[in-house]
Amino acid sequence: MRAVIAGAGIAGLVAARQLGLAGWQVDVLERSPGPREDGYMMDFFGPGVHAAQEIGLYDTLAAVAYRVVAAAYVDARGRETARLDYARFSRLAGGDVLSLLRPDMEEALRREAGLVPGVRLHYGVRASGVDEQSGRVFVNTGEPGHSFTADVLIGADGLHSAVRQAVFGPEQRYLRDLGMRAAAYIVHEPRLNELIGGRFLLTDSLGCTAACYGLRDGRVAALLVYRPAPGDPQQVRERLRARCAGLGELPDRLLALCPADPYDDVVAQVVMPRCVSGRTVLLGDAGGAVSLLAGQGGSLAVAGAARLAGLLGPLRQTERIPSALADFEQRWRPTVDSAQAAGRRAAANYLPQTRTRLLMRRWVLRAAGLPLVDRIIARQISAQIAR
């Protein structure tokens, strides 16, 4: 049995590993020329943790996780206005929360996939065309003599999926813009790293939220979420400085260190009536992005990939693939729908549009330590991460 997976991100690598372990031949096509080095910190909890434990990946991920003491909001003078203790958050979320830098997580998963016979990674290769005939999927890369044939195609190539475009139609049919953009980059700045300590530091602000984390070796990861406006500069660094300047000494220093062309993309969801067409299935953000502000993208990527591979892996007859893909969609769709609803609420709370909403968020975070309130928050988290 043979699979082609478009995308060497979290979902694609987990699916490749699991199918390879089941005896499949797997080709992973990644359009970037090599592993991505920049990225943002993610809270990994809920269904992804359960799946990682079941398939033997939890210890691998825990080994590269960071220990975050708290998420702390600060005003323009650097004074802390609210704090969420991570030990308490972990308890509310069921006891297992890993803070993972996306490139670290991908590197760990890439090592795991690379240990499995039959799994091959191809960098600088894009799935530009898809054709299905007689129970086989033909994937064109746009390069003469460089195409792939498989029994199933898994589109795990992210928010702007080329597989989705080729099989399901134009992106604008499915992309739900949440009215924000996000930029992320990593700089070497030991002084700021020491100042941040073990905190996840966020600005308590309107219009733009600058978040930063102290990493290993004196590095600092920055994530800036902002609402774009007409007339913003086209160049990313200048646009960030126009939208996010004046939030405080620390975020202003990060803006000064911003590279010329950092990651910058729309904050959006992918909402689709179905994620399966013939022998092609969309996985992770490609078929159901919840937005990077929802805190569930990595978790859903691992859980979805594990579930899909669990249904496909045991198959030894290609005729059974369509029914397995239909089964996956039926089982997985409710989880995606629930996560997206929670993700829309999370995005609105991450970057409040009014001072009233900002003050309400501050009050909720301050009250989170109270016994009655933390039970309410626990119920909300449990509903969002229900398996």
Give a description of the structure.
This protein has helices spanning about 10-20, 45-55, 60, 85-90, 100-115, 160-170, 190-195, 235-245, 250-255, 285-290, 295-310, 320-350, 355-365, 370-385; strands spanning about 1-5, 25-30, 40-45, 70-75, 80-85, 100, 120-125, 130-135, 135-145, 145-150, 150-155, 175-190, 200-205, 210-215, 220-225, 265-270, 275, 280. Strands 5-4-13-14-15-12-16 form a seven-stranded mixed beta sheet, with helices on both faces. It has a six-stranded mixed beta sheet with strand order 7-2-1-11-18-17, with helices on both faces. It is an alpha/beta fold. A hairpin with a 4-residue loop joins strand 14 and strand 15 (about 220-225). The chain is built from 14 helices and 18 strands.
Defining traits:
387 residues, alpha/beta, seven-stranded mixed sheet, 40% helix, 27% strand, globular
Task: Map the helices and strands.
Blueprint: E1 2-6, H1 10-21, E2 25-30, E3 41-44, H2 47-55, H3 58-62, E4 70-74, E5 80-85, H4 86-92, E6 98-101, H5 102-114, E7 119-123, E8 129-133, E9 136-143, E10 146-150, E11 152-155, H6 162-168, E12 175-188, H7 190-196, E13 199-203, E14 208-214, E15 219-226, H8 236-244, H9 249-256, E16 263-270, E17 276-277, E18 280-282, H10 285-288, H11 297-312, H12 321-350, H13 355-367, H14 371-384
Parallel strand pairs: 1-2, 1-11, 2-7, 4-13, 11-18
Antiparallel strand pairs: 3-6, 4-5, 8-9, 9-10, 12-15, 12-16, 13-14, 14-15, 17-18
